[in-house]
Every structure is written in structure tokens, then in C-alpha cells.
Amino acid sequence: MKVIASSLRKGNVVDMNGQLYVVLKAENFHPGKGTPTTSVDMRRISDGVKTSERWKTTEQVEKADVDEREYDFLYEDGEGYHFMNPESFEQVTATADVVGDAAPFLEPGMRVYLQTFESIPISIELPARITVEVTETEPVVKGQTASSSYKPAMTNIGVRVMVPPHIGVETRIVINTADNSYYERAKD
């Protein structure tokens, strides 16, 4: 299926010269003068080689047809990250390359979207937000307003997040998985 280059997003699979590539990062550039372009960082599925491409935003790119379904994360071991299809109970194993930055967020039982090609996982999509607990941060200062000044905090999953000054240790917070940013204090 042909799509315009500017519509490519992280996790899409592109067919170039008979090889399949998974998109790791896609950015659109609109210079003041000249042609708008789309810069895409990709990883070849067959051997894991990373490459970058730049297209005009209106150029046609062949998007491969992949299977995207919900899977439950089971566990991680020396072989990789194991997931199970909740409907068929079929299990698949994703490599550390495929999971990448999502690894710290994975907890047993978590439901994620896996894109597979010929039953091989090629990309993972986490829930948009998850709840974590702050394990260390600077102490709360009385009278400090919740202005735009944020402070660093470490979470129980090992991810560093910038939080408002009123957030203390053992506070449960909701973070965006896309960019590890603070969303809100957890309601539970």
C-alpha cells in the first residue's frame, strides 16, 4: 500500500527494494525556502541494520502490511521478551532490539500492541500512560508554588522523570510513555 512519506510514524513498516524496515523515528521538516522533507530513521527487520532516509513529504512510500494485535507481556529471560495473544494463547518472543526503550515500562500482565510480520515481532506500542511510584526526589518545600519549575525524580521502574515541586517520595504519578513526561498525580 502506497502512502505519502509525511504520514509515516514510529512503528510503521516500510518496504524498500524488497527489504522490510521498521520506522524508529520520523520527522517532517518545513524550511522557509525549499521543499518540505521527511527524515526517517529505520531498522531493517532481517538483520537489524539501522539506516536513515530522507524523502520529499509528498513522495510515495510502500508501507508493508503487518499484523497488529494486542498481546499480554509475560516475562523476560535470556531469550528475550515473551508475549501471549489473549485470544489464541499463542506466544511470541521479541528481541531486546524490538522492545528497545519500552523495556523498563513492561510489567507482567501489561497489555501492549505488537506488530508482527510472519509471526515475528517487529515493533511494540505501549499504553499511552502508566502509573509509577516516585522512589527518590528532592524534599517538598513548603510554600513553593506549583509553577513551571520542575525537579528530577526517580521512579520504581528506573525511569527518570521531571515532576512538579509538590511531588514527594512514595507519591504515585501517571507518566506519558512516549516521552517519559509527568502527566498527573495518580488518583488511586
From TrEMBL:
Domain (Elongation factor P C-terminal) ranges: 130-185
Residue stretches making up the Translation elongation factor P/YeiP central domain: 68-122
Domain of life: Bacteria
PANTHER family for the chain: ELONGATION FACTOR P, TRANSLATION ELONGATION FACTOR KOW-LIKE DOMAIN-CONTAINING PROTEIN
GO biological process: peptide biosynthetic process
A cellular component term, taken from the record's GO annotations: cytosol
InterPro entries, alphabetized: Elong-fact-P_C (IPR015365), NA-bd_OB-fold (IPR012340), Rib_uL2_dom2 (IPR014722), Transl_elong_fac_P/YeiP (IPR020599), Transl_elong_KOW-like (IPR013185), Transl_elong_P/YeiP_cen (IPR001059), Transl_elongation_fac_P (IPR011768), Translation_prot_SH3-like_sf (IPR008991)
Location of the protein in the cell: Cytoplasm
Family, as annotated: Belongs to the elongation factor P family.
Chief location bin: cytoplasm
Pathway of action: Protein biosynthesis; polypeptide chain elongation
General function of this protein: Involved in peptide bond synthesis. Stimulates efficient translation and peptide-bond synthesis on native or reconstituted 70S ribosomes in vitro. Probably functions indirectly by altering the affinity of the ribosome for aminoacyl-tRNA, thus increasing their reactivity as acceptors for peptidyl transferase.
Name listed for the protein in its UniProt record: Elongation factor P
Annotated Gene3D superfamilies: 2.30.30.30, Nucleic acid-binding proteins
SMART domains reported for this sequence: EFP, Elong-fact-P_C
Keywords: Cytoplasm, Elongation factor, Protein biosynthesis
GO molecular function: translation elongation factor activity
UniProt keyword Protein biosynthesis present: yes
